[in-house]
């Protein structure tokens, strides 16, 4: 990961650790020119280009491909209409496509991973495994690159930064499949749930549905992006709580333009009107787009790198060790060859002995 | 679990054209905002003799009075003193660390002068490497102490580089970005300065010292960097005192023969140094430190520890396998040491036991000896006692005999007197 991109401190459970105490700041008595470093950072970043990997998950027919096309205003995917006679896929097959898009000098290498066949079978047990496996594989790939002796200057980042989960607009509440999937995935990747095809719900139904989904998420302790525990300061918290109130966004995707009142807008044309995608009164697509692209893209990448990837790394490096690990073992000692922290295991054993004694008593 | 993923290979990356405004052109700004909230770190190492003007130059560069006492010339060796400051300019917070070499060039024997410097730089790399190798790490909170730039202060002799300078720079050039500067440049005349600079540069090149090259691969900075590189090494003058020039106060040094203005490009290259160090290349210096010097250190260190990327059968080793192997080795060694210690302990115990037994035996012997002596004495005493008793008995017998005699004598005497008396009495009658 490029160290130039400083990012907020990570933490997998609670609040961020306090910043180290530094000597009181001295004010420079004249102009030094330190702030020119911001421009330097910008130039370097633009030269290197940016990367963003997004994954869309949901049942077929919820408009995933269309949504991706709408988000990035280009024909990323040709949305596939299932033709008659084609058997449904037996196993979940992930498809990835990478494109380079450029806007005002900023080059973005965008990778979209689609998951056709998710939740389409009759027995959907463990249908999340291929997805989790894919995400873990990307982390593994990055880890392998990172621990090489001779590393590349810039490790290619294929880790999934954001996973958009499409909730079908039933209007009731989250289905068991949704809950299972979200529970597992939230621990590994940033998940943004959206209500797909929201044009089939009225505004009141949408609000009710949203509240029920939020309640479900709270009941099952599912932390979707933006996670509350990563709010850095009061500004972040304010901004993010506004977003959290509206999660999941009710979105409509469209890639065709129509004429409305003399303007050309993206939308879906139906007999009873044109549903404008960019119109906040009609759907919340602008909110989703702003969150994903215009304001929180860097944050998504940072949290993936600082939190999810680090968690994966901790698990991965721990499981290759043979020493018995007590609960809550954390190796804070450095150096691979002297990682046996002998006092800790014995402490743990003592604790278990005592607890055993208590149990026996 | 095999996940079938249909992927495009890298060469077929399509450039898509966008049909509308997506909005990711705000990405650089998002990035900059994150960096600003986190703050920046910059660490400068100043290498130069005592009194050459290091602290003054730092004060002048950053327009701040960093409190410091001038060092003495009596230091027994070179030591490094690091001080951290937090500067703030508009919304940019900079954690600046200035590392000073105290006592550099003061010793009579300067063979080892470069060693503390190299050790310090390596120690910072090591600290970062340790943090990176930890299992549970936090690289984002980590206060980066690696040296980003080394300002090497060259004494303004006017001739050439000293051999100490060459040796030190050669040792440092693979570990840190070296920017050579000529200190106290107001002591050199302009024509001498030009000759001095070219002599220095040619000496550096002929000795293979790699100083920091200002990057020329980006159009925005290539031009300015190229023009500035020509003026290396920068001849600088530092001053924190202000002198009234015209109607403004400017930093300058006042001499009887004139005033040397620090920020006047005709007088010295201070402005160029400030441009290059801070305003144009600060980020590049940090990046070079991380991607080149640190990676080199890391590679050497890991190879030294025995890690490899591929083994002779060209199967990639994973770091964990090597960790495992190393750790088993280490455990084996631990066990061996334990065994050794145990055996030594047993031996010591045996020795002690033998000693104790010896001592015990000695004690017993002493005891026996004493006992015997005691018995002999006792016997002697008994004998004497017996003799004494015999003597007493004899004495008693003699006494008894004597008494008998005496009593007999007395009796006979008494009889005699009685007879006498009787005779007398008879004669009277």
Automatic annotation (TrEMBL), chain A:
Residues in Septin-type G domain copies: 48-319
Chain ranges passing through the membrane: none
Keyword Cell division on entry: yes
Subcellular localization(s) per the UniProt record: Cytoplasm, Cytoskeleton
InterPro entries, A to Z: G_SEPTIN_dom, P-loop_NTPase, Septin
Family the UniProt entry places it in: Belongs to the TRAFAC class TrmE-Era-EngA-EngB-Septin-like GTPase superfamily. Septin GTPase family.
Stated name of the protein: Septin
Taxonomy of the source species: Eukaryota, Metazoa, Chordata, Craniata, Vertebrata
From TrEMBL, chain B:
Signal peptide interval: none
Region entry Disordered, spans: 398-429
Keywords: Cell projection, Cytoplasm, Cytoskeleton, GTP-binding, Nucleotide-binding
Gene3D superfamilies: P-loop containing nucleotide triphosphate hydrolases
Domain Septin-type G: 38-304
Pfam families reported in the protein's UniProt record: Septin (PF00735)
One of the record's GO cellular component terms: cell projection
Chief localisation class: other
Residue ranges the record marks as coiled coil: none
PANTHER family linked: SEPTIN
Similarity-based family: Belongs to the TRAFAC class TrmE-Era-EngA-EngB-Septin-like GTPase superfamily. Septin GTPase family.
Name assigned to this protein: Septin
Source species of the chain: Erinaceus europaeus (Western European hedgehog)
Native organism taxonomy: Eukaryota, Metazoa, Chordata, Craniata, Vertebrata
